[in-house]
Every structure is written in C-alpha cells, then in structure tokens.
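User:
Care to share a sequence and structure tokens?

Assistant:
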Amino acid sequence: MREILPGIHIWSKLSPPHGYDFNGYLLELAESDLGGNLVIDPVEPSQQELDAIAAKGAALILLTNRNHGRAANAVREATGAKILINPADRLHAESQGIAVDGALLVGATFGPIEAVDAAGKSPGEVALFWRDRRVLFVGDSIIGWPAGACKLLPDDKMDDPAQLRASVARLQTLEFDTLLPGDGVPILKGAREPVGALIESWAA
C-alpha cells in the first residue's frame, strides 16, 4: 500500500485477463465525523497490505458497484468496518457472498465524500466525489486505461450503455482534477481532459 496523495493510499492487484490493475483505496479521515477512515473498492491485499489497512483502521467500506465486493469481507473482518453499497446493486453483491451492512445512497455524504449517480454499467453504480480536493473515485463507470487515458468497458459488459454514457457526461461537469479508478491507472492531475476526450470520441 502506498500513499499517492496526502492521506490517500492505494493498493493494486493485476488482472491478467484485462492487462491492467484493479485498485483499492484507503482514505485517512481522522478529522471527519465518521469515527474512522474510508476504504473504497478493496482488492485482494497481501498479508502485509492487510496488516497496514488494519493498523490504520476503517469505519466504512464503500463499494461503487455490484462487482467490486472483491476483498471487502476480509477488510471488514480485519477492521470492523461496515460495508455499504447502493441498494440497486445489493442483491447481486450478496449473491457473491459479500456481507453488506447498509446502503450507499446517491447524494449521501461520508465525511467529505459525496456519492454521485453513475448508473449504466449496473443500476446501482456510483462515483465518489471529494469536492474540496477535486478528487473523483470511479468504479466501473470509467476505466483508467491506457495510462493517462480513459475508456469504457465493452458494451456487452454494461446493463445500459446509453445510460452509462449519459452518467459519464454528467461526471464530466464536476470540478475534479484527479481521477482514481477502481480499474486501471490513476490520473493525478488534469483528469477532466482525458474524460472529455473519451466523451468526444463517442461522436466521432
């Protein structure tokens, strides 16, 4: 696990079928009213990484979509954090064995983080926006690949491709500078430009 921005830590696991990393994030939020840190879309950690997560602690694990339960149960067991997901994606996540504790509703805030609608890949997909720091966390709504660029999953992996494109266009209106994807390579500066280029490519 490494700190890529002050108080924002990442750990990654290569997905050979995709050719890029899947990422989990830990946000240090000691000053918030959550009573602990946030974990987003945790991927399978090494034992050393799991020990580091447990040492920092977490209050909540936020899942951006039904397929990002990943190692949430292991992090929950190690930290006592509660797992939250949008109700529209909850049944699927639970069918995969994820121990969901509560709802991650669009418009809800978790300390400085706001849940934003990003539906389309699945009905309950959300993005997580840290407005004060201009950081946007995305699950499967935008893939950070190749490095420095953005793409979407293939249409056959989406429930509603047109809805997802509309969601991404709305995300582009947010004032973010950093894009931290669950899949692919983070873009630490100037991230609205490659997201804009992705949107423009649909009209080509």
In short: Helices lie at 47-56, 72-79, 87-95, 161-171, 192-201. The chain has a mean pLDDT of 96.
